[in-house]
Amino acid sequence: MRNLIQKAKSISVKLPKIKISYKNSKSHDFGDVNVGKSGSGEDFWDFEKYLIGDSINKIDWKKSSKQGDIFIKNNESENANNIWFYVSKSGSMNYTNSKNRETKLERATVIGLIFLDILLKSGEKVGIIGSELGLKKGQKNYISMASELVKKNKSQDKRVKKNDVVFFISDFLENTEKIKTKLFDLSKTKFNGFLIQVLDSSETNFPFEGRNRFFDPISGMHKLFNKSENMKNTYKRKFREHQERLKFLCSKYGWKFLSNTTNESYESVIAKLYRVL
């Protein structure tokens, strides 16, 4: 764990602070959420469009009549977004096609640790999904938070509240319906999501030739191919179709989709995050 933290720190120390501002979200397909700041503190309000499930008592009829739509108002403390992290520890994450290259789990953990450090030093309030440790703020909490991130925690957390932001890091190679179910089970309220897909480079380009046995660590199934190269076109087509379904899922529910392979730099996925913010 120490090596992973040190690697993450060596990268995050060079990076600027960021603030997560999530707008035009369609999380859980409840509709658009447009937040406009009118000030800060208990005496000022944030307005957003009324969504099914919102309290009728929070409707601001004066603003609604002016805008021609129904708006509710929250004070800033109610509307503040907490940020949550979850790194999948499923069996498939232990895969690497080269002994000289890190596993997907190691790569995913370092990515999570980098973002965790950046957000803590940016003043964001951060939590780890499934951890007993509460929300924390400030770099002084980095080591305790990092220790929780590398553990195998539950993938559900009732503390995730409406419009919180979740960084979910996995290979996302399961059926997209199963992925959607897992994400919805994470919290019973709608949330904003960053899905960061981490893959081994061999999973994107299928470099295999000759006799190879392929094993699925989740289902336990395995299959032997005498001429693996004959499967390359079929594999790449199915992989491309899966990626398209995954991106469609994210688009439908307003989640941001990022990807990184183990032969790419860490900086590349960080740059992608900065571009979508």
Structural description of this entry:
With 277 residues, the chain is of the alpha/beta class. It has two domains: 2-21 and 81-276, Rossmann fold, CATH 3.40.50; 32-79, no CATH class. 35% of the residues lie in helices and 18% in strands. The protein is built from nine helices and eleven strands. It has a six-stranded mixed sheet with strand order 6-5-4-7-8-11, sandwiched between helices. The model is unreliable at 24-44 (pLDDT under 50).
The CATH architecture of the largest domain can be named as 3-Layer(aba) Sandwich
Q: How does the major sheet shape up?
A: 6 strands, mixed
**Which radius of gyration do the C-alpha atoms yield?**
21 Å
Give start-end ranges of low-pLDDT stretches: 24-44
* Total domain count: 2
Q: Provide a count of the helices.
A: 9
The portion of residues forming beta strands comes to 15-25%
Characterize the overall form: globular
Percentage of residues assigned to helices: 25-40%
What is the number of strand segments?
11
| Secondary structure category | alpha/beta
CATH fold name of the largest domain: Rossmann fold
Compute the separation of the termini in Å: 29 Å
Overall mean pLDDT stands at 84
CATH class of the largest domain: Alpha Beta
Order of helices and strands: HEEHEHEHEEHEHEHEEHEH
What is the strand arrangement across the widest sheet? 6-5-4-7-8-11
